[in-house]
Write a structure and sequence with these properties.
Length: 279
């Protein structure tokens, strides 16, 4: 197993499990001069100490390893991006709400201060009446309270979706992958329109991240039936389990099932492989 699994075990600790099945237990356990050692289900190394859990092999934890662990890291990077975006949108929704509450005062200030500022702007050669910034501000302060309220609600709902996506992706839940693909795809036409109207570095980067996220999740995680869909996804995820590989090695009859090694699996929520084995 690569150093990636070892680094994760260094941060989170080894996953030591004592199965009830004697042949499998013997393959995971060794006696050393310093005490009993058990094979970690994530990194595959032996670690001295007592197992943190015991029970049937079917109930054993299935930590992400190999390709599954690489994909978990990518999912968590996406999760961080979604969480940051959700918090920014939540702050924007609050700002719009506050702006709506102070709209009357801002409108009065705009009407009274604009004539005062116009002579100074003309001396600087700046046509304040044709300024895009001034026109946008004028539209905002003269927008109806109801319109601004609905905008704030819409932004808040969008923020909530982003935050739910972020939490779900961080926890490597498959439903979050579907939610991310659907929610992101719905907003792609709006982002394309914004790019056509006024392309900026932020718009381009956001659009690129969203497109890459959709393509990656659909193809790599086999969503919506792509590349064999859920069935193939669970088969490969189950094949990633070190405990199942050891069980096949201890049972010649099951060794012919075609598991190709510890790097044969796919990423995702490793607990779903556990469900697949029980069924």
């Amino acid at each position: 197993m690569s150093s990636r699994e070892l680094r994760v075990c260094g941060r989170r600790g080894h996953v030591l499990y004592e199965p009830d099945e004697a042949p499998l237990r013997d393959r995971l356990h060794v006696q050393t001069p310093v005490g009993d050692a058990w094979r970690c289900l994530r990194c595959g190394d032996y670690a001295v100490g007592a197992p943190t859990q015991r029970g049937p092999a079917a109930d054993a934890p299935v930590p992400a390893r190999g390709k599954a662990l690489r994909q978990e890291i990518i999912l968590r990077l996406l999760a961080v991006e979604r969480l940051v975006r959700g918090l920014l949108l939540l702050a924007a929704a609050y700002g719009i709400h506050r702006f709506s509450s102070a709209q009357t005062a801002l409108r009065q200030a705009f009407v009274s201060d604009l004539p005062v500022a116009r002579p100074f702007a003309e001396q600087l050669g700046f046509d304040i009446d044709r300024s895009t910034l001034v026109r946008d501000y004028d539209k905002a302060v003269n927008a109806s309270h109801t319109t601004l309220t609905w905008i704030a609600v819409g932004v808040a709902v969008y923020a909530a979706i982003e935050l739910v996506e972020g939490v779900g992706l961080w926890l490597t839940r498959r439903w979050a992958e579907y939610l991310t693909v659907v929610a992101t795809s719905v907003f792609l036409p709006i982002e394309i329109r914004d790019l056509l109207v006024s392309a900026s570095v932020t718009h381009v980067l956001t659009f690129a991240i969203n497109v890459l996220a959709v393509v990656y999740l659909v193809v790599a995680k086999r969503l919506f039936g792509v590349r064999g869909g859920r069935k193939r996804y669970l088969e490969e995820l189950s094949g990633e389990s070190l405990l199942e590989l050891e069980a096949d090695a201890s049972d010649p009859n099951s060794a012919a099932q075609g598991l190709s090694g510890p790097d044969a699996g796919m990423g995702g929520d490793p607990r779903q492989a556990q469900t697949a084995r029980r069924s």
